[in-house]
Amino acid sequence: MKKALLTLLIIPLLLCADEPSMAIHNRPLIKVNGRTISVIDVMKKMNAFIYQNYPHAINNKAMLYQFYSGNWRSTLDEMINSELMLLEAEAKEIKVSDADVREKVEERYGPNVMEKLHSIDLSLEEARTLVHTEIVVERVMWMNVHQKALQEVTPQKVKDAYAAFVQANPPTEKWTYQVLSVRGQNEELCKRISSEAAKITGLKIGDLNQAAVDISESFKEEPELPKITVSEEFDLESPQLSEQHRAVLECMQPNSYSDPIPQKSRVDGSTVWRIFHLKDKEKVVPPEFEAISERIKNQLLQERFVYHTENYYKKLREQYNMTKQQVDTLIPQDITPFQFNQ
User: Per residue in 32-46, is it b (16+ CB within 10 Å) or e — as a string?
Assistant: First the structure.
């Protein structure tokens, strides 16, 4: 096998004579299960995937090149795994009927099967082989991965995961509010301005933004006019609140304004007079078990699928002497099977 791989077969295949074009440098990559997998084989496997998932890209050479270049190695890995699973399926006498394959081909490429296959450079026999392999892989994976995961994710495991979720996300409160701030060198003037602003909010005239506009207009002749700002609308849960803000908000009712409150700026330690407008406060509790149990179950299943898939592939590769390290010694890291010519 190694000797065969050392013989390079470089055949530039131009997909189109017009610009832009893509050259495919075909060569044998690896031999698995008696089958030599070439660059063209990998490309055809990718074409089948693109046709199923991104049909709009099948005639776009730039998109094809980008997909080929970024995915050919992972596609090759998938093909190696599939060939090894075919060996296991043969040993376990897992059969796939011609009718199953024919039905899947019709479902995927029908109604004009030959026309569709021609568009992605696949023969009918190649399409049948790909589909046959996919069905076998699905059945082998069911036996070695999915069954194990389903057996492990019991109703009790789902309940335990929900309990852990509730513990990590205890009930809390969500606060919606804004803050008007008055800061300047003249603290007495800041206090007086904030008091006047409080009178405006107390009369329910507009909101903090309107109060800031009105109070700035009223004191515009002051030579030391403080800086009057209104924050964005905060929408925070209790753990996100600063201690200064929490101390004020916890004493307020929704849709109310606080009195002017002197607080220390965390930036420079200066005194800032603030008026809080608490717009809303709501209790936030974890969703009920029934509402998220299916989501938790699916998450646990996915975790177990990944775990058993990785273990199964590792065992399979070791059994047939096709570990990543062994494959890497056979396929140079610097080869570039695809070249885009603009």
Answer: beeeebbbbbbbbbb
Scan for tokens 């101390």, then name that residue: 247
Answer left, alpha or beta for residue 226, where phi above 0 means left and psi between -120 and 50 means alpha: beta
Kindly give, in sequence order, each residue whose CB lies less than 8 Å from that of residue 328, ignoring residues fewer than 6 positions away. Answer: none
Q: Please answer whether residues 33 and 319 qualify as being in contact, where contact means their C-beta atoms are separated by less than 8 angstroms.
A: no
Give the residue carrying structure tokens 């996100």.
240
254, HSE (Cβ side, Cα atoms, 13 Å) = 9
Q: Pick the closest to residue 231 from 247, 242, 220 (CA basis).
A: 242
Rounded distance between C-alpha atoms, residue 301 and residue 76, angstroms: 26
Question: pLDDT band for position 334 (50/70/90)?
Answer: confident
d(CA 114, CA 298): 38
Q: What is the DSSP string of 50-74?
A: HHHH-GGGTT-HHHHHHHHHHHHHH
Q: What is the pTM of this model?
A: 0.72
pLDDT of residue 296: 98
| Residue (of 84, 77, 78, 75) closest to 140 by Cα position | 84
CA–CA separation, 330 vs 8, rounded Å? 12
* Residues 180/274, Cβ–Cβ less than 8 Å: yes
**Is the confidence at residue 7, as pLDDT, over 50?**
no
Q: Model confidence over 263-298: pLDDT tens digits?
A: 998 888 889 999 999 999 999 999 999 999 999 999
Euclidean distance between CA atoms 227 and 292, whole angstroms: 48
Task: Read off the pLDDT of residues 196-255 as tens digits, 9 standing for 90 and up.
Answer: 998 888 766 568 998 899 899 989 888 888 999 999 999 999 999 999 999 999 999 999
Whole-angstrom CA distances from 150 to 25, 134, 291, 309 are 44, 21, 21, 13
Sign of CA dihedral 14, 16, 18, 20: negative
Which residue in 29, 53, 42 sits closest to 130, CA to CA?
Answer: 42
